[in-house]
Amino acid sequence: MAEAIVCSVLQTLAQPIIQEAIGEKNFLFGVRDKVEDAKLELEMMRCFLKDADARARCGDETLRDWVLRITEVAYDLENVVATFVLKEEAAATKGMVLRIACLFKRPIELHEVGSKIDMLSNRVSKLTRGLQAYGVRVIPSNERQNDPRRTYSHVPEPHFVGFKENIRELVAHLTNPSSRVVSICGMGGSGKTTLAKEVYHQTEVKNQFNCFAWVYVSQQFQAREIWEGILFDLFSPAEKERKEIKDMSNDEVVRKLHQVLQQNKCLVVLDDVWTKEAWNILKPAFPENTTQSKINGFICEPQHLNHQESWELLAKKASYLKNIEETNPSNYKEMKELGNKMLKHCGGLPLAVVVLGGLLSAKCTLDEWGMLHENVKELINKGEESIGEQEYKGVFAVLGLSYDELPYQIKPCFLHLANFPEDHEINVKELCKLWTAEGFVLNDNEAHKCLMALVRRSMVQVGSRSSIVGRIKTCRMHDLMRDLCLEKARSENFLSLINFQEAEGSGVSTQVMPTSKVRRLAVHSNKNIVSQLLPLTSNRDGCLRSLICFGPKEDLRYPRDLFKPLFNCFYMLRVLKVESISTFGSMRMLPKEIGRLIHLRFLSLRNCLPEYRLSHSMVNLRCLQTLDLRRNAVVSIMVLRSMNTVISKLDHLRHLYLPKLWEGICLDKLGIQLGCIVKQFQLRLANLKSLETLVNFDTSYCILDDLSQLTKLTKLGIITQNGGLGEIKPASNLQSLDLFQSDDGKLEDIVPFLSSYPRIQKLKLEAKLVRLQENIPCPNLVKVTLRSTYLAVDPMPILGKLSKLRILSLGYRSYFGKKMVCCKDSFPQLESFSLQGLRDLEEWRVEEGALSKLCHLKLIDCMELKSYPDGLRNITTLDEIEIIGMSEGFKRSFDPK
């Protein structure tokens, strides 16, 4: 891990902005030479760190302490140089008088910086000499690397092995009317969730029920969220109904769910239930006597894989084995012998086999298998990597090896995942932005490559994928892998976690406030005890680089006195993520002390107080890359004014998420006077040349011409109240476009506007169209979502011509016609089709050759649709159909293959 940190610091010191700041103008004071000397010392030390890291992991406590000291020195050196550079930049922007005043202080400041760098360089040199004296050697960097072009699928279905008897038993119980509760239990990683998914998608099971729900419970859960999740899964309520459910009391939600389960044949899967007490908390919502609904939460224990099944699963992960079997049988025989020896340490546990297979997927030779076999035995026999219960020891030895074998660049990315709560569905786009802000990678694309490497090694699980080239949309970690991640993050002093959350029925999991030097801090807070964050500010070493807070979905009430000292103490922060803040006492503006966070690269204040204004001191945040100001309420004019003062100065921004000013209210209704006030504070974005993402660009308070200056923009979300789309200048590299127009807004011909964006692949329209034009000038569209478009003419003939379209969703109020026809050979690439809330639709016809590659079909709340289209019955690729809220006549006509 020390190698990764040192390399990251060297990368920072080599950046052009650093080199320019310590250039010729500072030569006389020796700053440049001192920085170069420090870089050379770090480069020399780096040669020894591979061996030092490895020996520290094997239990050498002396070297472990040495490695921790090395990382601290590297961080301190980066802090000194980066702070100096940013202050130099800030001084250059000051007025003439202030710059002259600074000239008198500058020699003293440069001397202080040089002295600090000298001191740190000496410490690095002493540590390097100490490593050599201790016998740490230089290991050549000639190890075989994983081929980035090779693909290792992490989709569970292709790698499903075993559990045949379990599946037969579970299907029999689920289809037996007298069996109401079916349970799957076993140790972590034994395949409970995988088995449940396989049974869940069995045809016999699908034919038995008409409503389905799958929810995660976990050790720390809120019963209300579980009940709501089941309701939303069972009948996918409209936005209005969702709000009504959200506004219900707990007793009303329980009664509502109880009624739905009594009136329908439902299969409910409760995944990851840890205790009987947790089930006792949840079960009041489930009928006790009905025989129609099944609750699958906790009868069978998944059978461990036998040797043959384990080898079959391993061979699927290491896919090159089939070729070796055909081309070199003798090598294959020896590799199989070695593989079976290693598989003994997995104990038939599916997760351990999958992880071992991911590790072997990058080891293609017999020699590499032999070396890995020796390492596996050493780690297993040592037995000191164990965490938790006794039976997990062997599993953690294998999982620990998968971490040890990671390339040094990816290790910080893996450890960073310890920030997230258990079973948290991690947004990949945000995760990549966090890794970039931390300095683990140079950009979001590099971050995504690191994530894919973790997925290929089965260290991260795929949640959902996006429509474009199947990129990962969300990811998660298995419980055992997360435990390993937490242990590694703590032992290497990478991250500290403070957990204040209290789970219903499972007690409190609270960790003590850290007392040693902490670089990254994750806080899992509870709204009732968030004031316990105040002791954090007593740690004034100023080294904290990341503070990420997770809390309940309800608004958090932060104490007024928290953030001012926090900003004063932790001036090295690069990442600050505090969301859903409802109040800071009487404060209505971020404290001016936030301007001290000159290293800040990621700032999320999502869903904070509507009148919560930005401080003018934020213009000092010149390194800021991501700023998220989205809110669930209408913001005030004063907020707009503060944004106008700050945002235009943040010229390093890459991702900007603005709040919605009017939240669907037509500007005309607010009066001419208010409109004039808004125009005085129009937001100028032309200076943000690095901007790649711009969400909630409101034409009522943003300068339309600025878009033509944002040449790197790839994602754009536009809100228009009074038309004006024809005035918007194109951003040539745009790939994703969301357009929202008020119901009272001006109708426009959308085609001329879209013709300015020929490269877009994703299009979401929530604007009145009445009809689509004959030709959509966007031939590269992969995903189209229509909602509130009020189409009166069937859009299928037009949309069906989009040859690359893979995902199509028609939502509520998108089409008011009674008939819809998918013409012959239309939609040649469409894989996913969703019709939701088309309440006037009576007839849907699918002609021969249409939707030929359709895999997933979702029909929700189209109550007037009379029958299932006969043309769909001949589509052999259609393997998943979701039908919710449809008429009885439609259900009778439905006969899935």
Write the layout of secondary structure elements.
Elements: H1 2-13, H2 16-21, H3 31-57, H4 61-92, H5 96-133, H6 164-174, E1 181-182, H7 192-200, H8 203-208, E2 211-216, H9 223-235, H10 239-246, H11 250-263, E3 266-271, H12 276-282, E4 294-296, H13 307-317, H14 321-327, H15 329-344, H16 350-360, H17 366-382, H18 393-404, H19 411-416, E5 426-427, H20 428-438, H21 444-456, E6 461-465, E7 472-476, H22 479-491, E8 496-499, E9 502-503, E10 507-508, E11 520-524, E12 546-550, E13 556-557, H23 563-569, E14 575-577, E15 581-583, E16 602-604, E17 626-628, H24 637-646, E18 655-657, H25 672-680, E19 693-698, E20 715-720, E21 736-741, H26 750-754, E22 762-766, E23 783-786, H27 796-799, E24 807-810, E25 819-822, E26 832-836, E27 843-846, E28 856-860, E29 880-884, H28 888-893
Parallel strand pairs: 1-4, 2-3, 3-4, 8-11, 11-12, 12-14, 13-15, 14-16, 16-17, 17-18, 18-19, 19-20, 20-21, 21-22, 22-23, 23-24, 24-26, 25-27, 26-28, 28-29
Antiparallel strand pairs: 5-7, 6-7, 9-10
Helix pairs in contact: 1-3, 1-4, 3-4, 3-5, 4-5, 9-11, 13-15, 13-16, 14-15, 15-17, 16-18, 17-18, 20-21
Short structural summary:
This protein is 38% helix and 13% strand. With 897 residues, it is an alpha/beta fold.
Q: Which structural category do the helix and sheet elements fall into?
A: alpha/beta
Number of β-strand runs? 29
Number of helices: 28
N-C termini distance: 53 Å
Helix content: 25-40%
Radius of gyration: 29 Å
Output the strand order for the largest sheet. Answer: 8-11-12-14-16-17-18-19-20-21-22-23-24-26-28-29
- Which range does the strand content fall in? 5-15%
